[in-house]
Amino acid sequence: PVVLGVESSCDETGFGIVSDGVLLGQGLASSARQHAEFGGVVPEIAARAHLDAAVPTLQIALADAGVELGDITHVAATSGPGLATAVHVGLAAAKSIAWALDVPLYGVHHLAGHAAADTLEHGPLPDESIVLIVSGGHTSILHVRDLVRDPIVHLGDTLDDAAGEAFDKVARLLGLGYPGGPVVSKAAAGGDPRAFTFPRALMRGGDAPYMFSFSGLKTAVARTVETIERDGAAVPIADIAASFEQAVVDVLVAKALKAVREKDLQTLVIVGGVAANARLRTSAQEACDRAGIELRIPPISLCTDNGAMIAAVGDLLVRAGAEPSGLAIPADPSAVLHGAQLPLPAAL
Ligand code: ATP
Ligand code: MG
Ligand code: FE
């Protein structure tokens, strides 16, 4: 198969082309800069940007892959979850392409796409693994068996802010700009991660071992900044940024490793924009080395939203003999994760 993947759930317009597990090429556009002045993604702006970017980005993907539109044998698209207006644009584009080419269309759950991203870099996932997805919109721990044949077990999620969202909010209150991840990390580079003890919510989390909460952490940072400013002292940005980053990383690594150990597995996969974070990468690598666990993190270009990861799921579905989802599939902005395909086939 030569599978075209389409992604438009948030602020990235992505097209990727995958054949037999190999990424042939991709095109990516982002409206992140257009949202900067609002400190977060504005759905209507994202949707308009997808509409503008769709055809040129598809052309880039085809040129990058060295294939013609007519070479595409199957189309896969994110049909949820995501911003409703944004998902609609990519899904409508995917339906048009599938109809025009008279090829099957598969609806893909966005989080299954993230989980599949690493297969394009490091090959097929093992029989079972834990996947930690950390991005601007998600903080999820998944128990993945065969990505497209078996149900995906969603072990945990955030009760409030996502990890990347916490970076974005802390960046805003430290006056560092948007998106927050890169600027907070940069500010943290020279700081002392032990200078402030910020809360590690649900760290023990008895009945919620895999749930996260980051809104209290953001509030604690805000209180600290207020107190220092009230005293008329200079705010130690580097120390606060480093201590905040350490608190996020400690919780992410502890819970992800707990899941791997408790399910008695050997592999942890980390994806999503926050996987760009150097402190997270180092800390996860050290913890995995100590525990004898294999850590897989794809390059950043495959960690953030992209079309290649959706094509990767489509390619797996085709090769597994899955029934196409059909041209009538609805966008499902709040799709629950039970399996890679949307709507969920009866067999799962
Ligand atoms: P979705 O949640 O659907 O994947 P998104 O666009 O919010 O969509 P990504 O594009 O995967 O998510 O990632 C963006 C997020 O990653 C932002 O919240 C950003 O602050 C965070 N991020 C990027 N680089 C870093 C970094 N070095 N450290 C921490 N966070 C980072
Ligand atoms: Mg993004
Ligand atoms: Fe995403």
- Give the strand line-up of the largest sheet: 3-2-1-4-5-11
What is the strand content?
A: 15-25%
Rounded Rg: 20 Å
Order of helices and strands: EEEHHEHEHHEEEHHHHEHEHHE
Q: How many DSSP-defined strands?
A: 11
Largest sheet: 6 strands, mixed
Bound molecules: adenosine-5'-triphosphate, magnesium ion, fe (iii) ion
Q: Determine the mean pLDDT.
A: 97
Task: Give the overall shape.
Answer: globular
Give start-end ranges of low-pLDDT stretches.
none
- How many helices in DSSP terms? 12
Distance between the termini: 23 Å
State the helical fraction. 40-55%
Please state the structural category.
Answer: alpha/beta
Overall description:
- The protein is of the alpha/beta class and 348 residues long.
- The protein has helices spanning 32-35, 43-65, 84-101, 110-117, 119-122, 163-173, 180-188, 215-230, 237-262, 278-291, 300-303, 307-319; strands at residues 3-7, 12-19, 22-30, 74-80, 105-109, 129-134, 139-144, 153-156, 267-271, 294-296, 341-342.
- The strands form two sheets. Strands 3-2-1-4-5-11 form a six-stranded mixed beta sheet, sandwiched between helices.
- A hairpin with a 2-residue loop joins strand 2 and strand 3 (22-30).
- Helix 6 crosses helix 7, helix 7 packs across helix 9 (237-262) and helix 9 (237-262) packs parallel to helix 10.
- The chain is globular, with a radius of gyration of 20 Å.
- The two termini are 23 Å apart.
- The relative contact order is 0.19.
- The model has no long low-confidence stretch (mean pLDDT 97).
- The structure holds adenosine-5'-triphosphate, magnesium ion and fe (iii) ion.
- Magnesium ion binds at residues 10-12, 136, 304-305.
- One of its GO terms (molecular function) is tRNA N(6)-L-threonylcarbamoyladenine synthase activity.
- Pfam families: TsaD (PF00814).
- It catalyses: L-threonylcarbamoyladenylate + adenosine(37) in tRNA = N(6)-L-threonylcarbamoyladenosine(37) in tRNA + AMP + H(+).
